[in-house]
Design a protein that fits this description.
- With 271 residues, the chain is α/β, with parallel strands linked by helices.
- It has a five-stranded mixed beta sheet.
- Strand 6 and strand 7 form a beta hairpin.
- The protein is elongated.
- 17% of the residues are buried.
- The C terminus is likely disordered.
Length: 271
């Protein structure tokens, strides 16, 4: 027999026979931030032992809820203590039925959230309590050719392969990289992609976020990082020259615009 309800956190104790012993403090802290914003949606499971609720499943949620300052949380309450064998069977069953999103599904979910809200990567990190590196990698999968996205969804390609391949914008080149990765270890493939024969990743627009809220935007024709650095160096040189001449920021921008006229195929830089 079992019933569903809310249980005071003060009455919950972890199961001493919990098979999971390691809990990453950083992940728990991030989970707590998410709980503060969105609450606990998946109930913990346990049994009543007098006035105490002993957890069978959900210690990670309990730890995060404690940090978040919750007073109670949803719970499925068994009316009696299961035997040790029954407990292990139930814990195994719970784990088997807990199906997580695939990396590609998480990528699609983040992209959908971004489309609906207009949030930047930084805002996604803050609002979803995720690491910036994780958000950036997941969104990078959106740049993959559809065939490679399908393989990532099916689990027939490693996430590290997918991320490295996503750094190349041309779909045909992505598929060629994938083909050439057959039989290579992670390190061998990383070396191949990042080596001298690497296809240079290009972008039509890149935003470089700086402390204090300033953004440096590089847009125009497709540019590699090296080309962006060269262009920004040239802009910096011109701006310093303008500063020495007493120009203000608006005038300096107009002077650079006038100098850029003439049909030169170079990226346009602004801040």
């Amino acid at each position: 027999m079992q019933k569903f309800g809310r249980i005071p956190i003060s009455s919950i104790v972890p199961d001493p026979q919990q098979p999971r012993k390691l809990f990453a403090s950083g992940e728990i802290a991030a989970f707590a931030e998410d709980i503060k914003k969105h609450g606990v949606h998946v109930p913990v499971i346990g049994f009543l032992d007098g006035h105490t609720f002993v957890l069978i499943d959900g210690e990670r949620r309990l730890r995060a809820a404690l940090i978040a300052g919750l007073a109670d949380m949803p719970a499925i309450m068994l009316t009696e203590r299961p035997s040790k064998a029954q407990l292990r069977v139930l814990q195994n069953s719970l784990d088997a039925h807990r199906e997580q999103l695939t990396p590609m599904e998480r990528s699609n979910l983040l992209a959908e959230i971004q489309r609906e809200t207009g949030w930047s990567v930084g805002e996604l990190v803050e609002q979803l309590s995720m690491k910036q590196s994780e958000v950036s990698k997941l969104l990078a999968y959106q740049r993959l050719a559809q065939d490679i996205q399908d393989m990532l969804q099916a689990g027939t390609i490693r996430t590290d392969q997918a991320y490295l391949i996503s750094q190349t914008s041309d779909f045909a080149e992505q598929l060629q990289l994938l083909k050439s990765s057959e039989g290579l270890s992670r390190d061998q493939f990383r070396t191949k992609v990042k080596g001298n024969g690497q296809t240079k990743t290009k972008a039509k627009r890149a935003t470089f976020m700086l402390p204090g809220g300033m953004n440096i935007i590089v847009s125009g024709g497709e540019s590699t990082l090296e080309q962006a650095i060269d262009g920004l160096t040239a802009v910096l040189k011109e701006l310093r020259r303008g500063l020495s001449q007493g120009l203000d920021i608006v005038t300096a921008q107009r002077v650079l615009k006038d100098k850029a006229k003439g049909g030169r195929d170079e990226p346009h830089h602004s801040s």
